[in-house]
Amino acid sequence: MPDSAIPATVERGDRVASLLAARYGLTVRTITQLPIGQGTVNYHAVCDDGLGVFVKSYPAGTDLQSEEAAIALSVRAVEAGIPGPRVLPNQEGQHLDASTSLPVSVWEWMPGGVSPLLSPSQLAEAGTALGRIHALFAALPGNPPEQGSAGQRWRDIDVDAITTTIDELLEIIADRISAGAGDAFDTMAQRTLLERRDQLTHVPGLLAGLPADLTVQVVHGDYSPVNLLFTEETLSAVLDFRPPDPFLVAYDLGRMAFYPNTVVGDANWLDAAATLIGAYRQAHPAVAAVDVRACGRVALLQLLKSLYGVRQHYLKPGLFQADLDEFWLVRHRAVGVLLGDLAASDTLLTELADG
């Protein structure tokens, strides 16, 4: 897991250490807070017996029942041979400890690190694991009407509402600049938001090009390089499964195949997508061709409709807002690249789906 860390605050670190002792029988030697994650506060603890654990602390208001279901997906995947950490039960056998005001889950510490840009062999490993996950989860029960509505809700993109939010953010930025409080990010945010407002005109056409019969099932939900650990070229862990709410297979696949850092950081991003999707299809030959053909447009639409990062900057800063600022800028650049090469990606995906 990532090595970079910041010391946990004494009070919160002591609380986590005390909880590990009382509920897990673990005596903590050192504990550090990790500068990762936006939805949870995360720690690396080393115990007296040398055991290293990853502790995920859930903030107030978290839907703990959904998080328990997400943990169950991770357990299912690991039991099926997908590389990943074991979740450690507390002394009552529970995978999520909610006995205090500091609910946590505790996981074995895994080797490896995150690679924002994956090599061809790492891409193949990531594609194989995702294919295996989708094949495994395809058998999970789901209510067909609910599954259909999940896909439809995703398609119901309210361009006017997104435009209104953009205008609100632009007004905040303009006020900051006129007051002499503007900074470099304000300038970049203003430019990118104006560009995004114009780019939203592509949404109706992109939606019209999506088939109606995209597959909806339980998926990983947050499959991306930041949730994959590699030891050199070998995938050592898939992390952070999301709750088992049925969603578009094309979303999981497209998000990974056309990950923004790859699109803007790798001149051969189309080749990278082909490598990942080729490995995915080998591991999951039953995937519907329509899902492969559509995954690029699904990824692009998801990026187009999202203001994640810049919205937090001005309305509700995240735990590590500097990371979210960079995330917004990279994602926005990726939108421009994907829009500019839409025909090329469509052609590639048709070849991969029919090959």
Automatic annotation (TrEMBL):
The keyword Transport does not apply. It comes from the Bacteria. Keywords: Kinase, Transferase. InterPro entries: Aminoglycoside_PTrfase, Kinase-like_dom_sf. Residues 31-285 form the Aminoglycoside phosphotransferase domain. Its EC number is 2.7.1.39. One of its GO terms (molecular function) is homoserine kinase activity. It is an enzyme of class 2 (transferase). This is Homoserine kinase type II.
